[in-house]
Amino acid sequence: TASPTATQIATAIPCDPRTAEFCITDGHFIFQRPIHPPANDSVDRTYPFASTADGTRDPHHGVEFVNEFGTHVHAAGEGVVIFAGPDDAAIYSPWRIFYGNLIVIRHDDVLFTLYAHLSKIEVETGDTVTAGEKIGEVGQSGVAIGSHLHFEVRRGDAEDYFSNVNPELWLFPSNPDFGALAITIQDANSTFQRAKITLQQYSASGEIIGLNYLDTYHPTLTRGEENVGVNDLSAGRYRITLIHNGSIYERWVEVQSGKL
């Protein structure tokens, strides 16, 4: 079938996505990337937030930045270090030594960032850190497959293992030309629904120029307003499609640079 023309527009904020095609907001991009270029500052797409990697792993409480041992890890924002060391006492997860060498930083507005599996820790509990300050190095301590930084954002209670929010929706896009997308899939009773989503990016001439496959969050981590979230999307028009109970659903949206 012919590609639809670009007739959909976003409704001005405040905006209700139940009645508008989509809403454009400033989002809450407040944290820097904990890994700086030229190292890999992109989130690993094989195991994103709240994913089970197609049922092969436990629901993921954060995101991963895959990098070599010794890659510098930086504070995502200004704050106070409330934990720095091996997680021997199972404070931040139900298991001892799960995160290995761990740093937890408290930020304003009851937000916390966690940096796990480190090979080296360069701050102490009680230290005040600035955004971008080096705090440690990537490793494979604790329960980790390969060297990488496991990064989490928690809100409210740092010791609540289920207080996570999707870090991708709190990190600045890695490129000024990128934006982010938050999707909510609900039934008529506002109950979150599970689905596999196809996300296609279209050019101005109607050609498909990008393709992503997304899963909704695992129910144990579906606690916010959305149940799908992804950052670092090139600005442009996207078609969201899914099949649910035998019916096809779609929505056309626009991703804007630096916006949600």
Describe the structure.
The chain has 260 residues and is mainly β. 0% of the residues lie in helices and 37% in strands. The protein is built from no helices and 15 strands. It has strands spanning 63-66, 72-74, 79-86, 101-107, 111-121, 128-129, 134-138, 148-155, 164-165, 178-183, 196-202, 208-215, 228-234, 236-244, 247-255. Strands 1, 2, 3, 4, 5, 6, 7, 8 and 9 form a nine-stranded antiparallel sheet that branches. Strands 12-11-14-15 form a four-stranded antiparallel sheet, with no helix packed on it. The chain has a two-stranded antiparallel sheet with strand order 10-13. The protein is globular and about 50 Å long. It starts with 62 loop residues before the first strand and ends in a 5-residue tail after the last strand.
Mean pLDDT: 93
Which stretches are poorly predicted, pLDDT < 50 over at least 5 residues?
1-7
Distance between the termini: 29 Å
Biggest β-sheet: count, sense, barrel?
9 strands, antiparallel
What share of residues are in beta strands?
35-45%
Secondary-structure element order, as H and E?
EEEEEEEEEEEEEEE
Number of helices: 0
Class of secondary structure makeup: mainly beta
Radius of gyration, taken over Cα atoms and rounded to an integer in Å: 19 Å
Q: Categorize the overall geometry.
A: globular
Task: Report the strand count.
Answer: 15
Helix content: under 10%
